[in-house]
Write a structure and sequence with these properties.
- This protein is an alpha/beta fold and 200 residues long.
- The chain is built from seven helices and eleven strands.
- Strands 3, 4, 5, 6, 7, 8 and 9 form a seven-stranded mixed beta sheet that branches. Strands 10-2-1-11 form a four-stranded mixed beta sheet.
- Helix 2 crosses helix 3.
- The protein is globular, with a radius of gyration of 16 Å.
- It comes from Gemmatirosa kalamazoonensis.
- Pfam families: Pribosyltran.
- This is Phosphoribosyltransferase.
Length: 200
């Protein structure tokens, strides 16, 4: 059952029910259109402030987010924390298959700036955490120290469990239950529901 904060956040975005292939490769029954989220600056502001407050104790030097929504959020959080801002760009290899195929790359000018620095990684919403995983891996490859990950809304447990296992705390002002399925275990596939590729 969504908490009140999750309900308030979900009121800011358009959601669709159906059968979706997500960026991680998982299947899900809910798709959120997050593109217009930051157009409502006043509506999203309380969530940004709450997330920044949760990140502050980790004292990041840099706040980094995956494009698009994560980068918009990273700018806002960095401003609240008086930290630097960085972003990672999504690359989808054409010859890869399976789960967690998307890769994230820092622009060269930013890659040099994160080495040896404490970084908070943020995204608008996290479910499986595909974009966050890719961003954390890229930051580590450039010598950064990811100290916390955060999202305005955490859907389900998959992404949080991954980062918990790595010893990276997960913070969020809102959480909600969310079902993700591996393709071979998806009940919507078994029922013959048409599949829409939400990651493209």
């Amino acid at each position: 059952m969504p908490d009140a904060s999750a309900d308030a956040f979900l009121a800011l975005v358009a959601g669709r029910r159906g059968h979706f292939r997500l960026e991680s490769g998982h299947h899900g029954a809910l798709w959120l259109d997050l593109d217009p989220l930051f157009a409502d600056a006043r509506g999203v502001a309380p969530f940004v402030t709450a997330l920044a407050a949760a990140i502050r104790p980790y004292a990041p030097h840099v706040v980094c987010g995956p494009l698009l929504g994560g980068a918009f959020l990273a700018q806002l959080v960095a401003r609240e924390l008086d930290a630097e801002f960085a972003f990672a760009e999504r690359h989808m290899p054409t010859d890869s298959h399976g789960m967690y195929r998307a890769q994230y790359r820092l622009p060269p000018a930013l890659a040099a700036r994160v080495r040896g620095r404490r970084v908070a990684v943020v995204d608008d919403v996290m479910s499986a955490g595909s974009a966050m995983r890719g961003t954390v891996a890229e930051l580590r490859a450039h010598g950064a120290e990811p100290v916390v990950v955060g999202a305005l809304l955490v859907l389900g447990d998959a992404g949080a469990a991954h980062f918990d296992a790595q010893g990276i705390p997960v913070v969020s002002p809102a959480r909600s239950a969310y079902a993700l399925w591996n393709p071979g275990e998806c009940p919507l596939c078994a029922a013959g529901a048409p599949l829409e590729d939400a990651a493209s």
